[in-house]
Amino acid sequence: MAIRETQRRHEALGLDEDDLLRMYRHMLLARRVDERMWILNRQGKAAFVISCQGQEAAQVGAAYNLRPGYDYVYPYYRDAGIVITLGMTARDQLLSLLARAEDPNSGGRQMPGHFSSRELNIVTASAPIGVQYPQAVGSAMAFKMRGEDGVVLACGGEASTSEGDWHEAMNFAGIHDLPVIFLIQNNVYAISVPENLQVAGRIVDRAAGYGFPGVEVDGNDVLAVYKVAKEAFERARRGEGPTLIEAKTYRMTAHSSDDDDRRYREREEVEEWRKKDPILRFKQYLHGAGVLDDAKEREIEEEIRAEVDEATEYAENAPYADPESAMRYVYAEEE
Ligand SMILES: Cc1ncc(C[n+]2csc(CCOP(=O)(O)OP(=O)(O)O)c2C)c(N)n1
Ligand SMILES: [Mg+2]
Predict the structure, then answer these.
(1) Does an H or E element contain 186, and which?
(2) Over the stretch 80-114, which tens digit does the pLDDT of each residue have?
(3) What kind of fold does domain 2-321 have according to CATH?
(4) Nearest CA to ligand 1 atom 7
C-alpha cells in the first residue's frame, strides 16, 4: 500500500522509472563533481569553488522541464545541477574549475560557476548579482515577438531579489506576459547575511505586485519542484506569461572556498538541514517506489565515481589557454 502511494506521485506527473533514474543521476553527478572540486581546492590545485550542494533538487527538478538547445537558461553560479541536466559533463565542469583552454564555458577565462554553452542556450553570466534578469526577459520578449513557444528560465538566490534588476525584470515580464520563469533558490543566506535581514515578507508574494503568480515549493523535494515548474512551463508555452517559483532550500557548504561559515551560523543548524539533504530524500523515495535497490544504488555510485575520476585526470592534464589568446573575444580582431 505504502509503495503504491509513493509510486503514484511520479506517475501522476507523467514520469517513468527512466526519468526518475535520470534525475537521480543528474543530482548525484552534480554533488560528486562538487565534492571533487573542494578536494582539488584543498590540494591547492583549484583556486576557487562555489557549490551547488543542497540545491540539486531545486535545480534538476526545474531543469528537467527544459528543451535543451531550444529554451533559454540564465543560470547563476550554483546551478551545476541545471547545466548537467541540460547535458554538460563532469569534464566540462572540471576543465572550467582548473581554467583549462578546453573549458567550454569560457576557455578558462571566467571564474568557475559562470556557465555558458551556445548549443544548449545557456547564456553566460556576469559576476554582479542580478544582472541576468533584464537579459532573460529580453530573450523571453524575443520568443514572444517571433511567435515561438520557447521558455526562459532565470535563476538566482534569495538575495538577488533585493536588486533593482530583479524588480525591473519582474515588472517588464508582467506587463508583457512573457514566457519566463524566475526560479529563486532561497538557501537562507547571502554569504553571511541571513534571510530575515535580506527580505521582509515572503518572496513569492512579490509576484502579485507584478501581476503574475508566485508559488513556494519545498526545494529539497525534486518531484515537488518538477511539478510546480512543469505547471509554470506549460503556462509560459500557452502564452499565459511568467511565474515566480521560490524554492525553499539550504546552502550546505560555506558560501565559497574563501568563506568560513562557522563565524555566522551554528553547526546544529547545518546538521538539521543535512537530514533534509535532497539526494538522501530522493534516494529514499526511489527505494520506496521500488526503482532503486542497494545493488543498483552502488552501481550508479560507481559509474559516477569513474566519470568524475576520468574527468579529473583529463582536466588536470589538459593545457592552459595560450597567453597570446587572452584578448580574444574582448577586442575585435583584425581579419
Ligand atoms: C551587485 C553585487 N553585490 C554583491 C556581490 C557579492 N556577492 C556575491 S554572491 C553574494 C550573495 C548572494 O546571495 P544569494 O543571492 O542569496 O545567493 P547564494 O549565494 O546564497 O546562492 C554576494 C553578496 C556581487 N557579486 N554583486
Ligand atoms: Mg542565498
Answers:
(1) strand 180-186
(2) 999 999 999 999 999 999 999 999 999 998 999 99
(3) Rossmann fold (3.40.50)
(4) 129
